[in-house]
Amino acid sequence: MSAEALQTPGRGSGFADLFRSRFLLKLLVAKELKVRYRGSVLGLLWSYVKPAVQFVVFYVALGIFLNMERSPTNASGLPNYAIYLFSGIVLINFFTEALGNASRSIVGNGGLIKKIYLPRQLFPVASVWVSGVHFVPQIIILLVACLFNGWRPGLLQLAAAAAGFLIVALLATGLGLLFGAVNVYFRDAENLVDMLLMIATWASPVLYSWIMVRDKLGETFFTVYQLNPITVGVEAFHFAFWLPTTDGAESIPPHLLSVWIPVGLAISGLVLLTGQLVFRRLEGRFAQEL
């Protein structure tokens, strides 16, 4: 047998395995959904309940108590703050759920991994897909709310929304592969991911305006702030869903479409590549370490 035909046991073929094992990937996604809602009364309705409660809490605390909602007596607030807030929440919820579950997916499926061989990469990717299933009901609610507020999307808005979601999905997948692999060897990775997810909502303009960051911290820090792909994804969602519901007087970050969205895609792609390389390097000993 030639050396080229030999493969290290336990190592897959990277992203090619996702295409070859796409039916198995569908089964893993279905399994994750069934296990998650086994014995649950509401089932998939939790995809509506959780973001609704989160939205109400943030809207009351920030929109009403801290005057983030523009009103006749508060000209400094944001118009249609409810749309602004929810369009950020649906995207950040997708990211936090996808990364949190993907980073635990290998350890959580340790029993299966130790019994048979199947491409290990399927587990974190399946977790991201499950989060995508939960994302769909939330985006439908957002679309309905936007339509009631006069939203008439153009191709540019729809393209920006797709780009924003793609940026966050690539980032979540890349980090999920990275931390999912490292977590097998060092369980402290779970705690690190929990801290990152706690910071993620506040490190991007989900609850506040990007103008606050620029005015308070200056242009230099704002440029660093814009290098966060989640920030770019949220701003793309605001441009796509919130901005068309305003009177047009509001603004988006400079060069969002021409510079920051391509930069966000490039950074997320680099993170995905890095996560894939680390995952392939470590996956050979998953069964032994688990």
Word description of this protein:
- The model has no long low-confidence stretch (mean pLDDT 85).
- The protein has one domain (44-285).
- It is mainly α and 290 residues long.
- Helix 7 (155-185) packs antiparallel against helix 8 (188-200).
- The protein has helices spanning 16-20, 22-36, 46-65, 81-108, 110-115, 122-148, 155-185, 188-200, 210-226, 229-242, 256-282, 286-289.
- It is built from twelve helices and no strands.
- InterPro entries: ABC2_TM, ABC2_TM_bact-type.
Observed structural traits:
290 residues, mainly alpha, 12 helices, 0% strand
Distance between the termini: 31 Å
By DSSP (H or I, 4+ residues per run), the number of helices equals 12
SSE sequence, one letter per element = HHHHHHHHHHHH
- Overall average pLDDT: 85
Shape: globular
pLDDT under 50 segments (min length 5)?
none
**What quaternary form is this?**
single chain
**How much of the residues is beta strand, in percent?**
under 5%
Structural class of the secondary elements?
Answer: mainly alpha
Number of domains: 1
> What is the tally of beta strands?
0
Rg on CA atoms, Å: 21 Å
Largest sheet: none
- Helix share of residues? over 70%
